[in-house]
Amino acid sequence: MEFGLMMMWTIICMIFGLKWLLSSVNIWYYEKIKLGGDKKVVRLSLPPGDFGWPFIGTMWSFLRAFKSSNPDSFISSFVSRFGRTGMYKTLMFGSPSVIVTTPEACRKVLTDDEAFKPGWPTSTMELIGKKSFIGISYEEHKWLRKVTAAPVNGHEALSMYIKYIEENVVSALEKWASMGKIEFLTQLRKLTFRIIMYIFLSSESEQVMDALEKEYTTLNYGVRAMAINLPGFAYYKALQARKKLVAIFQSIVDDRRAKREKRGSEVKKDMMDVLLEVEDENGRKLNDEEIIDVLVMYLNAGHESSGHITMWATYFLQKHPEVFKRAKMEQEVIVKNRPSDQIGLTLKEIRQMDYLSKVIDETLRVVTFSFVVFREAKEDVIVQGYTIPKGWKVLLWFRSVHLDPDIYNDPLEFNPSRWDGLTPKAGSFLPFGGGSRLCPGNDLAKLEISIFLHYFLLDYELERDNPSCPLLYLPHCRPKDNCLGKVRKVSATTTTNA
């Protein structure tokens, strides 16, 4: 009996000893070897944290948390062990990293382009594109953003897109109302994908719509997965999807260039034409790889975020009848006050949707579609008393900022009225990132969401099939059943002028 008890304790001690030994490997390698020894580490004043296991770091803990019903348990484990320091060292996505969870630190990292550059994992850049916005230098990004911003987010462009978005929204809602049960999120993603495809590819969009949408779905499942390039794994499938996307886009680029050479300026202007025509002050134009990577990124970001946030905004409106009622009244007033000869929405009317804008902002805060973005220190940088060593990744954990009870009272509560008279302090509201790398399509996304909710609020309601359906958090937060339910038409009296 005593021998058995002794053996049991011996085994337990061996397990804990092995765990301690393995957890010490990363500390020894990344702090003692990579940073130049104990004295350098002490001088640097690294934030507290956990490097996790050799090679994989804390990725298992991250994936386990985000595949559970409590994704915030990942950060909570750092807070419970190391205190509310706001910054934690770790090893994720193959790199020594510092997780940042406070507005002040997020603002510093996002706006200091002298000290930080994009730091997305190599696996992510392989999928989205090394020549896209997430991979290029500050100078290249500034130039490319300048030439693409107006055709996507400019006042004239947004005004021009309204009619096309409206037509597709009205048609989609009418169609869904006649279909019975649908996966609401799936249909919304198809709708937002159709819109962004038209903006970028106009005439070619219909021909390749279904094929591209299918490949993008596969691509997104690999973005937050472990970079295991073996058959059967999500990352492997995502790489195959990217190859197919590149092949399709290359065919479109070749065909469009040939048509432009033949017809010249008669070709209809869209974002593809802009990318083919643009050149810098030295006459350099974008090559095919650059054009394709920009297309891959824009078309992906331009429909995923809009589709998911529209679904969540609709869900929250239905769940909170008092919010629904107030938002609907605002839309009815807009329709009532418009001139009798006006057909459809105007950009001026959309900018008058004050309460609906708060509904959208609150949805963006609660859901936090992009819960983390990546930067990399270009030099040793001191942030809030801690040093981020040169070459280390910085993971800006927006989800922690948006759900911090010290910033937002009852942060898990959906409450659009919290935005009444509130100007969030810098770094505390980051739905589209910030600094020079602010999402280039943020205004277009909010335009799409506003137009959809305008027509939905006036004439429709959503009846979910399974309101208690569990949530999935990777690659993006969504109901497991993709919000299965019925879209019902409840009125046809308030949109005679719409």
Automatic annotation (TrEMBL):
UniProt pathway: Hormone biosynthesis; Plant hormone biosynthesis; gibberellin biosynthesis
Origin: domain of life: Eukaryota
Annotated membrane topology: Single-pass membrane protein
Gene Ontology MF terms: ent-kaurenoic acid monooxygenase activity; heme binding; iron ion binding
Gene3D superfamilies in alphabetical order: Cytochrome P450 (1.10.630.10)
Cofactor: heme
Transmembrane feature ranges: 6-30
Subcellular location: Membrane
Function: Catalyzes three successive oxidations of ent-kaurenoic acid giving gibberellin 12 (GA12), a key step in gibberellins (GAs) biosynthesis. GAs, which are involved many processes, including stem elongation, play a central role in plant development.
Protein's UniProt name: Ent-kaurenoic acid oxidase 1
Organism for this UniProt entry: Capsicum baccatum (Peruvian pepper)
